[in-house]
Write a structure and sequence with these properties.
With 163 residues, the chain is an alpha/beta fold. It has 6 helices and 5 strands. Strand 1 (17-20), helix 2 (26-37) and strand 2 (41-46) form a beta-alpha-beta unit. Helix 3 runs parallel beside helix 5 and helix 4 (103-113) packs parallel to helix 6 (152-162). Belongs to the short-chain dehydrogenases/reductases (SDR) family.
Length: 163
Amino acid sequence: MREGPSFVTAAPSASRTVLVTGASSGIGQATARLFAERGARVFGTSRRALGDDGGVEMVQLDIRSEESVRQCVDRVLDRAGGIDVLVNNAGVMHEGFAEETALTDAQAVFDVNFFGTVRVTHAVLPGMRARRQGHVINVGSLAAWVGEPGEGLYAASKAALAR
Ligand SMILES: NC(=O)c1ccc[n+]([C@@H]2O[C@H](COP(=O)([O-])OP(=O)(O)OC[C@H]3O[C@@H](n4cnc5c(N)ncnc54)[C@H](OP(=O)(O)O)[C@@H]3O)[C@@H](O)[C@H]2O)c1
């Protein structure tokens, strides 16, 4: 198996705090569990109120809402004192040709995949700057570089993130 970045593979460290958005399923859940297995203190998020997932402490978060983002980040900071690694994973797929997609639906895709990521990053970065340390990982997509027919809006939202 390919080795991951040092902050994933590093020896267990109780001082490392990781926040993974969208950790209720898929890539986010697997990432959160991996960090927890490696000894980090891990907070995962879902829009639903979910119980803790093994070593992952679950916190409610809807990245479309500034209030929800603020509450989530405050909760993590209250409990852990700081965030060392932010994994911006929460995202939505969208299938449908741009021509046939209502503008409100197009905006909804960007509100999660692009602006949602910006909201969470805005809330976490000041703490990282104050502590002069931190990593921000944005989960992108190959679609940003090689768009498929019918995935144009999703690809555009991921391309915006990649720039
Ligand atoms: N799967 C792939 O093949 C693939 C390929 C390339 C990139 N990606 C990217 O990888 C990331 C995860 O994809 P996945 O396939 O693992 O997706 P997934 O299983 O559908 O999980 C998406 C996660 O995002 C959360 N989420 C959705 N809308 C949200 C919102 N408004 N606020 C907060 N959280 C929200 C969901 O949490 P709740 O529903 O519990 O709130 C869920 O935990 C996405 O950014 C996706 O674009 C996926």
